[in-house]
Amino acid sequence: MVSGPKVVGCILAGGLARRMGGGDKGLIDLAGRPVLDHVIDRFGAQVGSLILNANGDPDRFAAYGLPVMPDTVDGFAGPLAGVLAGLSWAAEHAPDADWVATAATDTPFFPTDFVSRLLAAIDDQQADMACAASAGRHHPVFGLWPVRLKDDLQSALVDEDIRKVDVWTARHKLVAVEFTASGFDPFFNVNRPDDVPEAERIAKELAA
Known about the structure:
The chain is an alpha/beta fold and 208 residues long. It contains six helices and nine strands. The chain has helices spanning 35-44, 79-93, 114-125, 150-158, 165-169, 195-207, and strands at residues 7-12, 29-30, 33-34, 49-53, 68-69, 99-104, 129-134, 137-146, 174-178.
């Protein structure tokens, strides 16, 4: 494991998937397996332990044998609620963990050095947190978050009703780490039905 036991990986699967017509985007078939399988393959090797942030009946993910942590904030409060869920799980179940890395359930091709590069950037820049970037865009769902800021985020969500990631991260030192797109954006996500054929094309390209 690249980053050892001090990093918990949290797959964010708590959204409503409105653009996909509802349901779980991670369970869409891609190259003969659910998208979530591809995410687990890439993420699991980068962290010490892996959990799912998902709302609703956790039994639909039972076959994966992973802990399922729902949002601790009501009302589908967005990615920050998923980050908080990951931080809360780590604080209770992984007391040796300093960090929670988050990745989206619908992004099957993200870099295999995602966590290690974010850790290195935080160390180099003496930052509080980091997120990935590509093609000039930040991807805050792909972030590395310190467990020590759990209560700060809880207060921002519950007491201040903050929902936008950049509003909260602006209070802290955030470093964005650029990942190069080579033939395709590594953070391409299967967000709409029309994205599935492109995902299949990329999967075939990677398997060739």
